[in-house]
Amino acid sequence: MAVNQEPRNKIYNDWLLEQSGFADQMDDNLLTLGAMIDLSVVSTTLTVPPTSPVDGDMFIPAATATGAWTGHENKIVIWRGGDVSAWEIYDVSNLRARLIAYDETNNKLVVWSGTNWSLSSAVFS
Length: 125
Hints:
The chain has a 4-stranded mixed sheet with strand order 3-7-8-9, with no helix packed on it. The protein has a 3-stranded antiparallel sheet with strand order 4-5-6, with no helix packed on it. It has one helix at 22-37, and strands spanning 4-5, 12-13, 40-41, 58-59, 76-80, 86-90, 100-103, 108-112, 117-123. It folds into 2 domains: 1-37, no CATH class; 38-123, no CATH class. By secondary structure, the protein is an alpha+beta fold. The chain is built from 1 helix and 9 strands. Strand 8 and strand 9 (117-123) form a beta hairpin.
């Protein structure tokens, strides 16, 4: 197991030489970093998972989400296709405010306040 987790984004670090758990936790780190580096979501208004998501599609489920998204409102959900074919969930509630994502449907930025996402007034064309 990793000795520490970075407090802001929960990335594992400080493994001891030959310590077990490195491979699994490093995989978690790389998936988290991959999701957060290009934080662009298809939509922030859906409550039902799409029937045919594309591998890597990201969403922020709206309130009263159902199906595979039940209980994951305000979290970041990513469709992992291929061998996995499942929704990967990233809980941002433990992250500091000011996390920014691009909402492709609204063509706007959404900002995490620490408790919820809100549309920014910035518009992109």
